[in-house]
Amino acid sequence: MYEVQMKYADLFNFDTLKFTCENFNISNDGYIFENITIDNFILNDLEVKNEDIALIKIN
Predict the structure, then answer these.
(1) Alpha carbons 36 and 31: distance in angstroms, whole number
(2) Rounded to an integer, what distance in angstroms lies between the CA atom of residue 20 and that of residue 51?
(3) What are phi and psi of 57, to 5 degrees?
(4) Are the C-beta atoms of residues 31 and 55 closer than 8 Å to each other?
(5) Would you call 33 exposed, middle or buried from its count of C-beta atoms within 10 A (0-12, 13-18, 19+)?
(6) DSSP per-residue letters across 5-43
């Protein structure tokens, strides 16, 4: 499992999105996260474009 902390490149959103995922892939366009758990929710996958990310940390 990976722990991810991510800030979106949105001038009005100062919150950090924190979640865990089983796997992730890095492409030229951005990141693809698989089997994500956020609080009590489970998502199959999440794709985030590079231009939407201000800061990302993956442990």
Answers:
(1) 13
(2) 22
(3) -135, 125
(4) no
(5) buried
(6) EEEES-TT--PPEEEEEEEEEE-SSEEEEEEEEETTEEE
pLDDT in tens, 34-59: 999 999 999 999 999 999 998 999 99
Structural tokens at position 8: 């979106």
Provide the pLDDT for residue 9.
Answer: 83
pLDDT digit string (tens) for 3-28?
999 998 876 777 889 999 999 999 99
Prediction pTM value:
0.84
> How many degrees, rounded to 5, is the angle at CA 3 between CA 40 and CA 8?
85
Strand partners, 41: 38
Tokens of 7: 């800030």
